[in-house]
């Protein structure tokens, strides 16, 4: 017996779709069970997946200060991959930052996006605006 699994082409999520989904999520669309509001949950899923998979994001508390980083680089010849990632991460998220805060930041973006612009570009814009390590660690 052969099992045939249907192939479904996954369309990438666009920037306008992500912003709309996050607005729907904030409006309570994700708590409803009908399929019309399934898009609202795609907002949370996309953001959680992006943050989990990105090698450029680190917990703010796990990133050493610039002074400690400089000292480590001048005294150590080699770092583990994990240590190197912590030292070179571009974005620092506070551990207390919830996914709902990120959703709100995405939903509140007023900049119009091109129809074919990727959802990733929206997340990068939010990260650049609010979570660059240099800016977060100076606070």
Short description:
With 139 residues, the protein is mainly alpha-helical. 53% of the residues lie in helices and 4% in strands. The longest helix is centred in the first third of the chain and has 16 residues.
SSE layout and pairings?
Blueprint: H1 15-26, H2 38-53, E1 57-59, H3 66-75, H4 81-88, E2 91-93, H5 99-107, H6 119-130, H7 133-138
Helix pairs in contact: 1-2, 1-5, 1-6, 2-5
Features:
139 residues, mainly alpha, two-stranded parallel sheet, 7 helices, 2 strands, globular, Rap1a/Tai family immunity protein, Rap1a
Query: How many strands in all?
Result: 2
Strand percentage: under 5%
Taking the alpha carbons of the first and last residues, their distance comes to 62 Å
Helix/strand-derived class?
mainly alpha
Query: For the largest beta sheet, what order do the strands appear in spatially?
Result: 1-2
Description:
This protein is mainly α. It has one domain. Helices cover 53% and strands 4% of the residues. It contains seven helices and two strands; from the N terminus they run H-H-E-H-H-E-H-H-H. Strands 1-2 form a two-stranded parallel ribbon. Helix 1 (15-26) packs across helix 5 (99-107). It is globular and about 55 Å long. Mean pLDDT is 77; it is low at 32-36.
